[in-house]
């Protein structure tokens, strides 16, 4: 999917991309060109029933990154930011974090997909909290991974839930993980609006691709 500024540019851009795919032997590719702003990204992904969003960006697009994170906040699908400087993407080693947030359990289905279709080695990095919420989520994840006989391990982080993501970015780089699965911010505070949410700084700093999952609080609403 590509966005152009003017309606008159749509056809030329579509032909250009389709020609590129044809020359390079890509099959079963559908090219969608939209005129206007990428702020409609979430709605457009829903219209075409996308199951995954891959966003490629360069260092020159740092200012745009904050806007794209904002556009993706309503997505019900995972979205991955891939820098131009990264090598070919691989899914052999997958790292995901589990904090005290119950929504972190949503990462299970995506880690499972990598385990099932890519044969990935999955590492679950559990927050070092005093409470038991993270541990309970990990136990639920293990039940799914054991059921389908995925290759996985659980490691206890040094950091608590509030600093877990920062530790995971460094761990992913040091131990050569291929992809890191993190949760996006549940809500934006004043600091997030002014300086950008935590995921903005994590994506900029990370030396491996980050797959972001939006928290689904609506799935965990308690009934009366």
Please describe what this structure looks like:
The chain has 224 residues and is α/β, with parallel strands linked by helices. Helices cover 37% and strands 19% of the residues. The protein is built from eight helices and nine strands. It has helices at 10-23, 41-47, 62-71, 107-118, 133-147, 164-174, 190-195, 198-205; strands spanning 2-4, 33-35, 53-57, 79-83, 93-98, 121-126, 151-156, 179-183, 210-213. The strands form two sheets. A seven-stranded mixed beta sheet has the order 3-4-9-8-5-6-7, with helices on both faces. It has a two-stranded parallel sheet with strand order 1-2. Strand 1 (2-4), helix 1 (10-23) and strand 2 (33-35) form a beta-alpha-beta unit. The chain starts with a strand and ends in an 11-residue tail after the last strand. Mean pLDDT is 88; it is low at 220-224.
Task: Please tag this protein with its features.
two-stranded parallel ribbon; 8 helices; 9 strands; 7-stranded mixed sheet; 224 residues; alpha/beta
Topology (elements, then pairings):
Layout: E1 2-4, H1 10-23, E2 33-35, H2 41-47, E3 53-57, H3 62-71, E4 79-83, E5 93-98, H4 107-118, E6 121-126, H5 133-147, E7 151-156, H6 164-174, E8 179-183, H7 190-195, H8 198-205, E9 210-213
Parallel strand pairs: 1-2, 3-4, 5-6, 5-8, 6-7, 8-9
Antiparallel strand pairs: 4-9
């Amino acid at each position: 999917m590509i966005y152009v500024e003017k309606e008159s540019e749509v056809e030329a851009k579509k032909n250009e991309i389709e020609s590129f795919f044809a020359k390079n032997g890509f099959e079963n590719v559908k090219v969608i060109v939209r005129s206007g702003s990428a702020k409609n990204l979430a709605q457009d992904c829903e219209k075409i029933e996308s199951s995954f969003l891959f966003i490629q960006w360069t260092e020159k697009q740092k200012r745009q990154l904050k806007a794209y994170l904002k556009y993706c906040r309503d997505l019900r699908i995972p979205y991955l930011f891939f820098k131009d400087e990264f090598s070919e993407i691989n899914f052999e080693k997958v790292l995901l974090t589990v904090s005290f947030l119950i929504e972190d359990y949503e990462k299970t289905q995506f880690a499972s997909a990598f385990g099932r279709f890519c044969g990935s080695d999955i590492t679950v990095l559990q927050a070092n909290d005093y409470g038991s919420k993270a541990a309970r989520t990990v136990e639920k994840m293990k039940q799914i991974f054991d059921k389908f006989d995925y290759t996985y391990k659980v490691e206890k982080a040094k950091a608590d839930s509030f600093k877990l993501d920062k530790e995971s970015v460094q761990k992913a780089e040091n131990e050569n993980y291929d992809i890191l699965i993190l949760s996006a911010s549940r809500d934006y505070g004043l600091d997030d609006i002014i300086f950008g949410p935590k995921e903005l700084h994590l994506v900029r700093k990370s030396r491996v691709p980050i797959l972001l999952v939006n928290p689904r609080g609506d799935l965990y609403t308690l009934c009366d």
